[in-house]
Amino acid sequence: MATTPVGWNSLPLEIQTMIISSLERQDFRRAWFDCRLVNRSFRDATEGAFKSQVIPGLVIGVMINGARAIYGFGRELVHENPYRESHFNRENAMGCHIEFNGYSEDDCYAMFRETIDTEVESSSHKTELGEPIPSREIEYEIGSQLFPYCPLLRLVWGDAVKNYRLRKTGERCRLPYVICSYVLYKLPSLEHFDIDSNGTKGMAIEWRPLTSYLMRKNIKIGECLKIKASQDHERTAEQDVRIAMSSETERKDRFESMFSALHKDCDVTFFCYTSKPDDHFKGSWYREWVWYLTT
């Protein structure tokens, strides 16, 4: 019995989106630029894949150096600094972040909102016994002065958004950044993005231009990883040495050293290390590097 081949356009949008999402990492990034140009169904499937796989994981933030979190009676918080390997102050750095909160009704904007709960704080603020501390009890010490956490965050955001709108630059100028796949990038210029923010609730950012900006950056990082993997000693070492170098521990050590310095070649601000010790290696960059290394 003859059968008719199933064409791409005959597949449900959900299946098309799953196919795009299943592409290898570098192919997936390039799909944003290539597949959307094929036809409308490819465009819808590709944008659907990025709307579900990329945008929800983004974080918009602002950094303050020299800030130390304390709580009640001057006791210091047990707080592991996730930016310890960055160019920011390794011990005292305060990150004010807003997270993805959905899309606008016209599907043009990704919404980012602050998620502070004055009664229950995130796991990064804990007592010595590991108990969460309410935001209302937290103060940040900057210089010799203490500032309540929530008002300080809103003040910092208002200042950063004002600088961003006015396109101010300079090392001392506080500006927002965006984190994508453990990588911190400067938030792109207002020439290409419409920002709707009052400094207290968050931002509404055109997600398609933002995705184009991020994928160009991430494609560059992927290319650098491929080059670094081809130059790794494991590729050329003798059999017994190669076996030793292929252990998970050895690979992670080499990857961390290489990855933390890669920003010099990729024109990014820096690579983040999360407060969960092993998350960095579970991230897609390590797996991608190993794939280049072994294929």
Quick overview of this protein structure:
With 295 residues, the chain is of the alpha+beta class. The protein has helices spanning 13-21, 25-34, 40-53, 149-165, 207-231, 239-245, 248-261, 263-266, 279-282, 284-294, and strands spanning 59-65, 67-71, 75-76, 93-103, 109-113, 138-142, 145-148, 177-180, 183-186, 202-206, 270-271. The chain contains 10 helices and 11 strands.
Helical percent range? Answer: 25-40%
What is the count of structural domains?
Answer: 3
The strand order across the widest sheet is: 10-5-4-1-8-9-11
Main pleated sheet: 7 strands, antiparallel
Shape type: globular
How many beta strands in the DSSP annotation?
11
Would you kindly provide a written description of the structure presented here, covering whatever features stand out?
With 295 residues, the protein is α+β, with helices and mostly antiparallel strands. It folds into 3 domains: 13-53, no CATH class; 58-211, no CATH class; 213-294, no CATH class. The chain has helices spanning 13-21, 25-34, 40-53, 149-165, 207-231, 239-245, 248-261, 263-266, 279-282, 284-294; strands at 59-65, 67-71, 75-76, 93-103, 109-113, 138-142, 145-148, 177-180, 183-186, 202-206, 270-271. The longest helix has 25 residues, at 207-231. The chain is globular.
